[in-house]
Design goal:
CATH architecture of the largest domain in chain A: Beta Barrel
Order of helices and strands of chain B: EEHEEEEEEEEEEEHEEEEEEEHEH
Order of helices and strands of chain A: EEHEEHEHHEEEEEEEEH
Radius of gyration of chain B: 20 Å
Number of domains of chain A: 2
Distance between the termini of chain A: 47 Å
CATH superfamily of the largest domain in chain A: Cyclophilin-like
Number of helices of chain B: 4
Distance between the termini of chain B: 30 Å
Shape of chain B: elongated
Strand content of chain A: 25-35%
Oligomer: heterodimer
CATH topology of the largest domain in chain A: Cyclophilin
Structural class of chain B: alpha+beta
Strand content of chain B: 25-35%
Low-confidence stretches of chain B: none
Mean pLDDT of chain B: 96
Helix content of chain A: 10-25%
Number of strands of chain B: 21
Mean pLDDT of chain A: 94
Strand order of the largest sheet of chain B: 7-6-9-4-1-12-11
Shape of chain A: elongated
Largest sheet of chain B: 7 strands, antiparallel
Helix content of chain B: 10-25%
CATH class of the largest domain in chain A: Mainly Beta
Largest interface: A-B, 45 and 41 residues
């Protein structure tokens, strides 16, 4: 359920689902997101679901905060929506040329490289949201002993395909971008395909992701 | 039929194709993009007799030098732009908000956007462009849009697929207004900041940093102190949102912004002032003034009426 609706500027609704980050709250966010998307409400021009918030942007030429708030409050979201969540396996190579922050992480977490990777590759990750840059999945949750802060000084360029962790989350850089996550490996897979106008994202909110470690040899041959 | 095209002799600093942008893609990480200064974008299309949502060329600071090859065509430039038209036997100083007929061999030399940032060039016809998600708008950070999502380069050609049959001289009487104050609605994390920090935000001058682009405008000035947490759980962003990271310097999200961010939101620029905000150039001063939601809505309505009025007079 939405706990509170406020305005974010004059052209968006800020729907707060609670302070915590967990699958249950996130599923509520996604349920609302899917329902509103299906209803095609006039004036709404964007929806941004995240861990525990949903931002609804609208065209101020067509509608306003009060009208959209009213529509959302009266929305019937009880109906069960068809979910087509996928289970995906993502290959990741942790060769030292890719695992840019592994030594830093060994110190931060006080764990050996082997332990860090063992923990990372044994997890099933849940996709909470996609964004920041096109197609970037935000995945969780890492165990308590695997949670590290962002780099103090973010990188100006994180290589495309980099797999990073911070706090309880993991992400994949779908193209070269600035960023501050701790990079542990790289995937040869295209996680965002801009040539596809429908479903350009490989990983979508609600999907389950399991990472599979591959060798440098396998990485190099992956797209051949 | 002749081939009609521009040859780019000098591409300029940041020359891209833009239109109204893309909707309904935030959830996969793709922002609106589109022309930064929407009013000047609409005016450019209207001055050449186009449908208002057609692609135009957007440039920043120093614009392109273009040589035209082909059949006669009208062009119009909007913004605060200094440009010259070089004809076979004469050279004229161009005026913004006025259409000009150009012929084979003519050159358009867009020297500068003066003390503003963005300007627009429209042609009386259509550029030959591949759209992505229904829009030509180039987002160079994500490589999305026409021209493979890259800005225009020297020696490239810009092809024209269609020239309007009617080439009519048009003019508008318009002056871009200068704003000193940018009106802002309180953000969802306004109370993360100290009383002193909030006061500074609405009372002091900030300077627009050189590190500003279509993604965001960075500001420098007195630091805004956070007393709660310098990070929030990552959530959606919008154009106009003002985030304050740990260093206390505000960043305003602009049209090509990342769709998700984790810094506290101190405020959001009112829609009425967005077109003017993006035109404030690096090194200039900016000051925020607080307004309430109902006032922001009314002011936007008036601004929109004024835009429609301007368009109907062309």
């Amino acid at each position: 359920m939405i706990k509170n609706i406020s305005n974010l500027g004059d052209a968006a609704l800020y729907c707060d689902f609670g302070v915590e980050v967990n699958k249950q709250i996130n599923s509520e966010v996604i349920k609302y997101f899917n329902t509103i998307k299906e209803k095609n409400i006039e004036g709404i021009n964007n929806l941004t679901p995240s861990y525990n918030k949903l931002i609804i942007s609208f065209d101020l030429r067509i509608t306003n905060f009060r009208e959209i708030k009213d529509r959302i409050e009266k929305l019937d979201v009880r109906q069960t929506l068809k979910t087509n969540n996928k289970k995906l396996e993502i290959p990741v190579c942790c060769d030292s040329s890719f695992s840019l922050d592994i030594e830093r992480l060994e110190k931060k977490l006080n764990l050996t490289k082997e332990k860090i990777l063992e923990n990372f590759f044994s997890k099933d990750f849940f996709c909470y949201m996609t964004g920041f840059i096109a197609g970037m999945p935000f995945l969780g949750d890492l165990d308590q002993n695997m949670r590290a802060q962002r780099l103090e000084t973010p990188r100006v360029k994180v290589p495309k395909g980099s797999v990073g962790i911070t706090e309880q989350f993991a992400d994949i850089y779908t193209f070269e971008s600035p960023g501050g996550w701790n990079i542990i490996g790289n995937t040869p897979i295209e996680v965002f395909d801009s040539s596809k106008e429908i479903d350009p994202n490989l990983i979508n909110p609600g999907d389950t992701v399991k990472f599979k470690q591959i060798t440098l040899e396998e990485y190099k041959n992956y797209n051949e | 039929m002749n081939k009609n095209y521009f040859e780019i002799i000098r591409a300029g600093v940041n020359t891209t194709f833009q239109d109204k942008g893309r909707n309904n893609l935030y959830h996969i990480g793709i922002p609106f993009s589109g022309a930064m200064d929407y009013r000047n974008y609409l005016l450019a299309n209207k001055l050449v007799g186009n449908k208002l949502d057609l692609p135009v060329i957007e440039f920043a600071y120093q614009g392109p030098l273009l040589k035209y090859n082909g059949d006669k065509i009208n062009i119009a430039i909007t913004g605060e732009v200094i440009f010259k038209l070089k004809k076979r036997d004469n050279e004229i100083q161009g005026n913004c908000y006025e259409s000009y007929l150009i012929e084979d061999g003519d050159e358009i030399d867009i020297l500068s956007t003066n003390k503003s940032v963005y300007g627009y060039l429209a042609i009386s016809g259509e550029f030959d462009l591949k759209l992505q998600w229904g829009s030509c708008s180039i987002n160079t950070k994500a490589n999305i849009g026409s021209n493979d999502g890259k800005k225009l380069e020297n020696k490239q050609e810009i092809h024209i697929s269609k020239i309007n049959l009617k080439q009519e001289k048009k003019k508008a009487d318009y002056l871009n207004s200068k704003v000193e104050n940018i009106r802002v609605i309180r953000g969802t994390n306004f109370d993360y900041f100290s009383e002193e920090g909030k006061k500074i935000f609405f009372e002091k001058d900030f300077m627009v940093s050189k590190l500003s682009d279509r993604m965001g405008m960075r500001l420098e000035g007195p630091k805004i102190e956070n007393i709660v947490n310098t990070n929030i759980k990552s959530e959606g962003l919008l154009k106009g949102v003002i985030q304050v990271p740990a260093d206390g310097n505000p960043i305003i999200m602009l049209s090509d912004h990342g769709t998700i961010g984790g810094y506290p939101k101190i405020g959001v620029v009112a829609s009425v002032d967005y077109d003017r905000l993006v035109q404030i150039s690096p090194g200039s001063k900016i000051k925020f003034k607080e307004i309430e939601l109902p006032d922001a809505e009314t002011l936007f309505k008036l601004y929109e009426m004024e835009t429609q009025n301007l368009l109907s007079q062309i």
